């Protein structure tokens, strides 16, 4: 399960990201770098984190096809194991991204469907997520970012080997923060999520490693 748990390093500086990496140790297999931290610390931090963990570079590229393709090539050159674009960019953009990613066979390219903070109607969100997942698969991508509540339907529509990466993971009774479509670790695994992205429940903990291990236990129960 450690290779299915991703910790989102939603911190402002490289030293904080590296300190969290050290606290977590080998309890998790993946670390996720988002816009805030990448803009602040750049490729050097990606390389440093990649020495001990797999890295998911969460930049949600969304631009004209050529620009996104060039960005994917640059990101692939950093040696990351996962990268995402936004499915809202459409078929042509995702196809261009997919072609660029072919130069990096060890990198998984996925698409964001609907943000878990989006307040749209649950049924409308699910319909749009499935439509965008099908478009991502048609484009040659390896999977999508979606909420837990859409994971099973996306697996059914796109196939068991199509990756589902699910943020919005919260512990029972915990604060939802700005997330809307949330779920517990056990439910996420039972619904077919391949990877769980967890940020604040771990980052805010007095003992991040202990919380990560507890989440792994809950994931195992869900399996």
Description:
By secondary structure, the protein is of the alpha/beta class. The chain has one domain (2-222): Aldolase class I (TIM Barrel), CATH 3.20.20. The protein has helices at 14-24, 35-49, 65-76, 91-101, 122-139, 148-158, 185-190, 200-203, 208-222, and strands at residues 5-8, 30-33, 54-61, 82-86, 108-112, 143-145, 163-166, 195-198. It has an eight-stranded parallel barrel with strand order 1-2-3-4-5-6-7-8, surrounded by five helices.
SSE layout and pairings?
Elements: E1 5-8, H1 14-24, E2 30-33, H2 35-49, E3 54-61, H3 65-76, E4 82-86, H4 91-101, E5 108-112, H5 122-139, E6 143-145, H6 148-158, E7 163-166, H7 185-190, E8 195-198, H8 200-203, H9 208-222
Parallel strand pairs: 1-2, 1-8, 2-3, 3-4, 4-5, 5-6, 6-7, 7-8
Helix pairs in contact: 1-2, 3-4, 4-5, 5-6
> What CATH first level would be assigned?
Alpha Beta
Count the DSSP helices. 9
Could you name the CATH homologous superfamily? Aldolase class I
Beta-strand content bin: 15-25%
Q: Could you give the count of β-strands?
A: 8
- Kindly report the CATH topology: TIM Barrel
Helix content: 40-55%
Q: What shape does the CA trace take?
A: globular
Which structural category do the helix and sheet elements fall into?
alpha/beta
Instruction: Indicate the mean pLDDT.
Output: 94
One letter per element, helices H and strands E, the order comes to: EHEHEHEHEHEHEHEHH
Main sheet: strands, sense, barrel: 8 strands, parallel, barrel
Low-confidence spans: pLDDT under 50, at least 5 residues?
Answer: 176-180
Overall number of structural domains: 1
Measured between the Cα atoms of the first and last residue, the distance is 10 Å
**Biggest sheet, strands in spatial order?**
1-2-3-4-5-6-7-8
CATH level-two architecture: Alpha-Beta Barrel
């Amino acid at each position: 399960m450690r290779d299915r748990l991703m910790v989102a390093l939603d911190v402002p500086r490289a030293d904080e990201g590296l300190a969290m990496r050290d606290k977590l140790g080998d309890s998790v297999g993946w670390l996720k770098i988002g816009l805030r931290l990448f803009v602040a610390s750049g490729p050097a931090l990606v390389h440093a984190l990649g020495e001990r963990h797999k890295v998911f570079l969460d930049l949600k590229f969304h631009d004209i096809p050529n620009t996104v393709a060039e960005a994917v090539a640059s990101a692939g050159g950093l040696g990351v194991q996962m990268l995402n674009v936004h499915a809202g960019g459409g078929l042509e953009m995702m196809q261009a991204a997919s072609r660029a990613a072919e130069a990096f066979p060890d990198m998984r390219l996925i698409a964001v469907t609907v943000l878990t903070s989006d307040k749209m109607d649950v049924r409308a969100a699910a319909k749009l997520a499935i439509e965008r997942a099908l478009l991502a698969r048609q484009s040659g991508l390896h999977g999508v970012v979606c909420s837990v509540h859409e994971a099973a339907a996306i697996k059914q529509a796109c196939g068991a080997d199509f990756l589902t990466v699910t943020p919005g993971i919260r512990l029972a009774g915990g604060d939802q923060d700005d997330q809307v479509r949330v779920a517990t670790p056990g439910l996420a695994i039972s619904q077919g999520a391949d990877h769980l992205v967890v940020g604040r429940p771990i980052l805010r903990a007095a003992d991040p490693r202990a919380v990560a291990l507890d989440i792994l236990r809950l994931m195992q129960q869900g399996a």
